[in-house]
Amino acid sequence: MAGGPKLPTDVRPNQFVEANAYAREVVERGFRFSPKNLGVIAIFGAIIPWCMYKGITNEFAVSDSKYGRAEKKFW
Predict the structure, then answer these.
(1) Is the dihedral of CA 15, 20, 25, 26 positive or negative?
(2) What is the rounded distance in angstroms from the CA atom of residue 56 to the CA atom of residue 2?
(3) Keywords in UniProt for this one (predicted)?
């Protein structure tokens, strides 16, 4: 049964997709923690989300004051 005729629905592996999948599976072996990485994690994990939150809540506050509504407390 093995090695029988190919069906039109058989999946042919793509070497580029397989290489990308392999790289994603072994990322923990290739990742090296360093002070540079800590800075990148701090920027994208804390500072940018905080700035987005402040910008969005400020926009709500401006909209509330423009239309005479009580300011919402988000935190």
Answers:
(1) positive
(2) 59
(3) Membrane, Transmembrane, Transmembrane helix
